[in-house]
């Protein structure tokens, strides 16, 4: 390299330019300060910030002036810039190397001061520049709890994102979440949870964040708090856990939330609590305990049935089985809704109340609950069962005139002609209507369901048996009593008509006999006279019986079994020992009780009438 003296003048000028242009910003700043007579000291930097001379501040910082000189109060230039709200000065200081974490009096850092002063931009710049998210505000509280208490949520979020300790507590010892629940909105609390605040912390009274959230009515925060580690089973200041309080106050939704999140059972006898809640009429508490896993006892199920509390019985049966024997217990008149509900909940229709008592079906029949007996058969009750009275279901249903039950039993395959057992159990006698049949129960055998139904007087029941194939041509063994004899004994014209194959109620004609006038008339179904004749009825000592009868038998040729005399065109009335027949009619009563009709007229009468026709004999 040649000496400078040997270089051309142009080259020398260029070299001088290069040397000047390559001088550092620090040297340039120092030169400028020197030219202005300003000493680059920390004290001058402090006063520059106080006076708001940002251009001079920039020169001082460029000149390498110490940026953290403290004033008499212990504040750094950065503290002063933040207090003045001078964003530009603060940024110059931050970029100029000022200590971002310098703690002033009371551990107030630039960051905590910026947050407390509402200088969000400065706080954000500090955090971006690496300031630690700590320090205390001028009133002595840690910056993060202070920000939560005062609703500085932008700062809260940035502090937590910047690594602030989520386990901090406020000046009163309240954890962050507790402060937020007491001072912020529900959404802010949720944000705090999501940002990692300590959900398991408790306040000075030992209460969890769950207790406080519930107190504010924010039950929907329970799942988030539980996931975050909150203890759902900590008691509040009154010694009650959230679950216990929800239970006592009947707050169903809160109770469900707590249970779903794992709150432990309410201490004590849960079944007794459920019974008590029911007895007090507190349905909400009942539902809580049921959802909590408590199961109603058989005695409680029976209690609701005795109270005929359908709604609660339905609720309880949704959580347990029908107690053994309960269906049979409730198969009595007036309890049909209870029994129907029990069946719907899976009660077994063939289960006995006790080993020595009848099933639900026989219980229903014994008690006279017709509709329930039919329903039980539809639910699968076995038809061939003996009731507590010692007879089959069919015999009992027939005697009671339970048409629907008889129809169901017939459809289920019961023997429609099976006779009652011999001897007939005395307990069954009370189910029979007629004294004649009760006498037969003691003295005779082969008494069929049809005979029992006829005696009951139930046309639908007899019709059900006949439609299903019950036999009318069956009689008792000893006294030869037929079903129609029992109907006749009751004077039951519709029943006799039914047994004779006629419509029980739609009569096509009727016969009227007047004992005083010794006359007989036949009327059609509309009441119009279609036949009349003179007759001769029973003389003194053999008076013809009065009343209403039905023609039950007709014989063109008949010989009296009593008087051994011929009685052509004989028509027996109500299975008795008298009726119409051809005979001598002298114009006054002359017979032994029968109704004599003149020759010719007897033939006409025989041709007009049929079995089942009603006959009225009046004085």
Automatic annotation (TrEMBL):
Family note: Belongs to the YkuD family.
| Organism phylogeny | Bacteria, Pseudomonadati, Verrucomicrobiota, Verrucomicrobiia, Verrucomicrobiales
Task: Please list the residue ranges covered by the ANK repeats.
Answer: 73-105, 205-237, 389-418, 445-477
Name of the protein: Ankyrin repeat protein
Provide the alphabetized UniProt keywords. ANK repeat, Cell shape, Cell wall biogenesis/degradation, Peptidoglycan synthesis, Repeat, Transferase
Tell me which Gene Ontology terms the entry assigns under biological process: cell wall organization; peptidoglycan biosynthetic process; regulation of cell shape
Cross-referenced PANTHER family, in alphabetical order? Answer: ANKYRIN REPEAT AND PROTEIN KINASE DOMAIN-CONTAINING PROTEIN, ANKYRIN REPEAT-CONTAINING PROTEIN-RELATED
The active site of this protein is located at 581 (proton donor/acceptor), 594 (nucleophile)
SUPFAM superfamilies, per database record: Ankyrin repeat, L,D-transpeptidase catalytic domain-like
Please give the pathway this protein is involved in. Answer: Cell wall biogenesis; peptidoglycan biosynthesis
Name the PROSITE patterns for this protein: ANK_REP_REGION (PS50297), ANK_REPEAT (PS50088), LD_TPASE (PS52029), PROKAR_LIPOPROTEIN (PS51257)
Superkingdom assignment: Bacteria
Q: Which residues form the L,D-TPase catalytic domain?
A: 509-618
Q: Is GTP-binding a UniProt keyword of this protein?
A: no
Q: Which InterPro entries match?
A: Ankyrin_rpt, Ankyrin_rpt-contain_sf, LD_TPept_cat_dom, Transpep_catalytic_dom
Q: What molecular function terms (GO) are annotated for this protein?
A: carboxypeptidase activity; transferase activity
């Amino acid at each position: 390299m040649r000496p400078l003296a040997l270089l051309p003048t142009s080259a020398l000028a260029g070299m001088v330019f290069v040397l000047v242009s390559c001088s550092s910003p620090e040297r340039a700043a120092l030169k400028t300060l020197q030219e202005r007579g300003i000493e680059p000291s920390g004290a001058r930097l402090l006063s520059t910030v106080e006076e708001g001379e940002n251009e001079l501040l920039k020169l001082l910082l460029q000149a390498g002036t110490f940026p953290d000189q403290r004033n008499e109060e212990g504040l750094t230039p950065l503290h002063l810039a933040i207090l003045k709200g001078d964003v530009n000065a603060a940024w110059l200081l931050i970029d100029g190397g000022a200590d971002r974490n310098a703690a002033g009096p009371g551990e107030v850092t630039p960051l905590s001061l910026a947050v407390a002063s509402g200088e969000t931009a400065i706080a954000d710049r500090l955090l971006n520049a690496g300031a630690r998210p700590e320090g205390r505000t001028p009133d002595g509280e840690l910056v993060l709890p202070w920000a939560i208490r005062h609703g500085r949520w932008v700062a809260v979020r940035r502090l937590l994102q910047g690594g602030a300790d989520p386990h901090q507590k406020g000046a009163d010892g309240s954890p962050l979440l507790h402060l937020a629940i007491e001072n912020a909105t529900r959404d802010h609390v949720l944000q705090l949870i999501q940002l990692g605040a300590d959900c398991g912390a408790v306040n000075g009274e030992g209460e969890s964040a769950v207790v406080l959230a519930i107190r504010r009515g924010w039950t929907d925060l329970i799942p988030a708090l539980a996931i975050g580690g909150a203890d759902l089973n900590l008691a509040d200041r009154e010694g009650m856990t959230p679950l216990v309080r929800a239970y006592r106050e009947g707050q169903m939704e809160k109770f469900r939330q707590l249970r779903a999140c794992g709150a432990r059972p309410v201490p004590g006898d849960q079944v007794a609590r459920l019974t008590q809640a029911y007895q007090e009429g507190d349905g909400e508490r009942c539902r809580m305990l049921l959802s909590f896993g408590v199961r109603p006892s058989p005695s409680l199920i029976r209690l609701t049935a005795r109270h005929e509390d359908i709604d609660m019985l339905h609720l309880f049966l949704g959580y347990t089985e029908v107690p053994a024997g309960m269906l049979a217990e409730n198969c009595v008149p007036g309890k049909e809704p209870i029994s129907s509900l029990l069946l719907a909940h899976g009660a077994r229709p063939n289960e006995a109340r006790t080993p020595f008592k009848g099933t639900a079906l026989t219980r229903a029949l014994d008690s006279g609950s017709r509709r329930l007996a039919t329903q039980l058969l539809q639910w699968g009750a076995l038809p061939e069962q003996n009731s507590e009275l010692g007879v089959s279901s069919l015999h009992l249903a027939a005697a009671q005139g339970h048409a629907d039950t008889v129809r169901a039993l017939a459809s289920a395959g019961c023997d429609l002609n099976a006779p009652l057992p011999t001897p007939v159990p005395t307990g069954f006698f009370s189910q029979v209507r007629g004294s004649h049949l009760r006498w037969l129960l003691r003295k005779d055998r082969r008494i069929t369901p049809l005979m029992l139904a006829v005696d009951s007087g139930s046309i639908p029941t007899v019709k059900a048996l006949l439609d299903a194939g019950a036999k009318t041509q069956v009689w008792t063994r000893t006294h030869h009593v037929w079903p129609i004899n029992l109907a006749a004994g009751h004077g039951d014209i519709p029943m006799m008509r039914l047994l004779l194959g006629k419509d029980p109620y739609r009569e096509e004609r009727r016969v009227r006999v007047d004992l005083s006038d010794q006359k007989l008339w036949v009327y059609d179904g509309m009441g119009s006279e279609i036949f009349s004749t003179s007759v001769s009825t029973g003389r003194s000592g053999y008076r013809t019986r009065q009343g209403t009868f039905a023609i039950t038998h007709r014989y063109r040729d008949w010989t009296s079994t009593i008087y051994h005399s011929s009685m052509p065109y004989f028509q027996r009335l109500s299975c008795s020992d008298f009726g119409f027949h051809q005979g001598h009619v002298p114009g006054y009563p002359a017979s032994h009780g029968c109704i004599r009709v003149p020759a010719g007229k007897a033939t006409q009468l025989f041709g007009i009438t049929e079995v089942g026709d009603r006959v009225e004999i009046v004085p």
